[in-house]
Design brief:
Elements (H helix, E strand, L loop, with lengths): L2 E9 L3 H12 L4 E5 L25 H14 L3 E4 L4 E4 L4 E5 L2 E10 L21 E2 L2 H4 L7 E5 L3 H11 L4 E5 L9 H7 L4 E4 L2 E9 L2 E9 L4 E6 L2 E4 L36 E3 L11 H19 L13
Parallel strand pairs: 1-2, 1-6, 2-3, 6-15, 7-14, 8-9, 8-14, 9-10
Antiparallel strand pairs: 4-5, 5-6, 11-12, 12-13
Helix pairs in contact: 1-2, 1-6
The structure holds flavin-adenine dinucleotide.
């Protein structure tokens, strides 16, 4: 099996990884991006990306990601399909293991996102991007004047349901347990006139057709009966999104919420290893935030590998 040596290896070819590669390549750093599948990341499955600055609001996430990837390749990045299953963060060389070969780099960037929660409801995977969403901040405006459901009782679910109250005619909030009595966010949410709380209820199925979601089936535990709700959007927050970090072992430190711990320059606790995008479990998971992380890490890597005292800005073309 081949072993490839390079300056920078980036694990994950989403907006975070591609933006980082664009900057490291432009800084003349030999860069390899390893991505297991360009169609499965959060941006790749986004049906329509209406809030990325500078691109048409009609554009799909997949199309935007294709442009980012092509741009990184155009500047010299070596993009390869490979699933990373392990790393070794030796101080001198960072080693990345894949079934296709081993990669050794002086700097390693992890950017595998937070799509680690498998779809668990009947119809969830089928209608993802066609009425099923994990991001009200991203998709809420598509549901102006329509009925939607939010599934989950965690903080993320409640905050995202708050966002939806601004747009939807009715937000059906479906929770298998009651929120705690002293939970102020829950109280505030239930005070909205357009929120209908279905307590002790379970989502059984998401139904729809070629146009997308049109109905859900819930089971009310107190009545032990099935109920059908006609609606167009289902926002699922069962265990929140889960950063994909299994291949890291315990070689970097994590935050309590499972995201990789970084400093202002996106450096992890392991020297020469950076973490960018949703893998950090950022409070605002947005493509533009992930891309910005990529830029910050790339400039810090340039400084680190070239022992510069200061960051060299990308727009000085001397
Ligand atoms: C349904 C949905 C809709 C959204 N809508 C919007 C929106 O409208 N606007 C917006 O700004 N944001 C939106 N977001 C959020 C946005 O897509 C994410 O914040 C952003 O894509 C995160 O970028 P990332 O590069 O960190 O991760 P991702 O985009 O998830 O990319 C991670 C990449 O890592 C790769 N990978 C994973 N594991 C491995 C491994 N072991 N080895 C190699 N490669 C690996 C994956 O194949 C993937 O390509 C949405 C998210 C979702 C889920």
């Amino acid at each position: 099996m081949e072993t490839i040596e390079t300056d920078v290896v980036i694990v994950g070819g989403g907006p975070a990884g591609c933006s980082c590669a664009l900057y490291t390549s432009r800084a003349d750093l030999k860069t390899v991006i390893l991505d297991k599948n360009p169609s499965v990341g959060a941006l790749a499955i986004t049906h329509q990306i209406a809030n990325y600055p500078g691109v048409s609001s009609e554009m799909s996430g997949d199309a935007l990601l294709g442009i980012m990837r092509d741009q990184a390749i155009q500047y010299g990045a070596d993009y390869r399909r490979a699933q990373v299953f392990g790393i070794d963060v030796n101080p001198e060389w960072k080693t990345v293991f894949t079934p296709e070969g081993t990669f050794k780099a002086r700097a390693l960037v992890v950017a595998t996102g937070a799509m680690g929660r498998p779809a668990s409801f009947k119809g969830e995977a089928e209608f993802l991007g066609k009425g099923v969403s994990y991001c009200a901040t991203c998709d809420g405006a598509f549901y102006r004047g329509r009925e939607v459901a939010v599934v989950g009782v965690n903080k993320e679910a409640m905050e995202e349901a708050q966002v939806l109250t601004k747009f939807a005619s009715t937000v059906h909030w479906i929770t298998s347990n009651d929120p705690k009595d002293d939970d102020l966010i829950a109280k505030e949410l239930m005070n909205h006139s357009n929120v209908k709380h279905w307590s002790k209820a379970r989502l059984m199925q998401i139904k729809g057709d070629e146009m997308g979601v049109n109905e859900i089936v819930i089971k009310d535990r107190s009545q032990d009966s099935l109920q059908n709700l006609k609606l167009e959007g289902v926002f699922v927050y069962m265990s929140g999104s889960k950063p994909i970090t299994d291949f890291l072992g315990e070689q970097v430190a994590f935050k309590e919420d499972g995201g990789v711990l970084v400093d202002d320059f996106m450096s992890t606790t392991a020297e020469g290893v950076w973490a960018i995008g949703d893998i950090r479990n950022t409070p605002f998971k947005q493509a533009v935030v992930a891309a910005s992380d990529g830029c910050i890490a790339a400039m810090a890597i340039d400084r680190y590998l070239n022992s510069r005292k200061s960051i060299r800005v990308d727009w000085v073309h001397a």
